[in-house]
Write a structure and sequence with these properties.
Radius of gyration: 22 Å
Oligomer: single chain
Number of strands: 9
Low-confidence stretches: none
Length: 153
């Protein structure tokens, strides 16, 4: 048996094995993350300070998966964009899942950013879908519009 394997790998067999391996690597590395989740738009609406901040998200979950996620709220300062608060978690996603109505920043960040002080902000969200032992992890990133939290009247 060992002799047959050696003969196979010493001829065209080695080429076939190497080509199949390279094809497998190409397929799994270039497989799009949108096969699982397609996030088309994240909009955060302006709000007065101290009240729930409303959002609108256009997403499609194509198949079941589990992902680690983080939602980072950044605030504009004189030095640039600084991190105001971060929500993190791990969730399972299913095609039948619906976002709450109304969708709030509090919910999106799992309570980490219930309200914000006056300023200009945006939210970046990152999902990491674990590929397990056979596939590479897939990362989906999106950023919201810049929104304003104004002084309460």
């Amino acid at each position: 048996m060992a002799g047959r394997v050696t003969r196979f790998l010493s001829g065209w067999g080695a080429f076939v094995v190497a080509a199949a391996w390279l094809l497998w690597l190409a397929v799994v590395n270039f497989w799009p993350s949108s096969w699982w989740l397609d996030v088309r738009r994240v909009v955060v609406f302006d709000a007065p300070a101290g009240v729930e901040i409303l959002m609108e998200v256009d997403r499609v979950i194509h198949r079941d998966f589990v992902a680690d996620w983080s939602a980072i709220v950044r605030r504009w300062t004189d030095g640039g964009w600084t991190v105001e608060c971060v929500g993190r978690g791990k969730s399972n996603y299913v095609p039948s899942a619906a976002l709450p109505d109304p969708l709030t920043l509090r919910w999106w960040t799992d309570g980490a950013c219930p309200t914000l002080p006056p300023g200009r902000y945006f939210v970046s969200t990152i999902w990491t879908i674990s590929g397990g032992s056979a596939l590479p992890d897939k990362v989906i990133q999106t950023a919201s519009n810049v929104f304003t939290v104004e002084e309460s009247p």
